Amino acid sequence: MGKLWVLDTETKGTGAEMVPLEKVLQDPRSARAPVLAPERQKRVKPPPPRAPWRFKVVDVMTRQTVAEGVDARTTVEVLRSFRSVVDVSVYAWDRAATNWRPLTLAERRTVWSFRDRSAPVQPVSPVDGAEARRKLE
């Protein structure tokens, strides 16, 4: 076992220094109890990598599930066929609760913002919207 080191605060002017515990206990001028250095914590293994997010997109008007269990990229592609962020309900799979969790409006807007960043797609007319969503499935 290695030496046990303590912080000796009896030095003058320069501050404290680390010395072996034996030296502090043998020194008669140190009447105070020694201050022990904190023990180092053991390194913890990093957590395993998280599984990719899974999403579910539901059309608000028809309550039809447009996409379920898709990744973020596919979710953004599906959102392109909608006019507004409030036209869809977007859910994320919660592994702890084993259930779909609805995204908040702020989270939906964040996902919606990626829709404009990716490659442009031809606008879809409202009549062809349902057909375009079927093609994405």
Descriptive notes:
This protein is α+β, with helices and mostly antiparallel strands and 137 residues long. The chain folds into 2 domains: 5-36, no CATH class; 55-136, no CATH class. It is 26% helix and 23% strand. It is built from 4 helices and 7 strands. The chain has helices at residues 21-26, 72-79, 105-117, 129-136, and strands spanning 5-8, 17-20, 35-36, 55-59, 65-70, 88-94, 99-102. Strand 4 and strand 5 (65-70) form a beta hairpin. Helix 2 (72-79) crosses helix 3. The radius of gyration is 31 Å and the shape is rod-shaped. Residues 124-128 have low confidence and may be disordered.
In short:
It is built from four helices and seven strands.
Mean pLDDT: 79
> Unreliable stretches, pLDDT < 50, 5 or more residues?
124-128
Distance between the termini: 64 Å
Number of domains: 2
Share in β-strands: 15-25%
- Multimeric state of these chains? single chain
The value of Rg in angstroms is 31 Å
List keywords for this structure.
single chain, 137 residues, alpha+beta, 2 domains, 4-stranded antiparallel beta sheet, 3-stranded antiparallel beta sheet, 4 helices, 7 strands
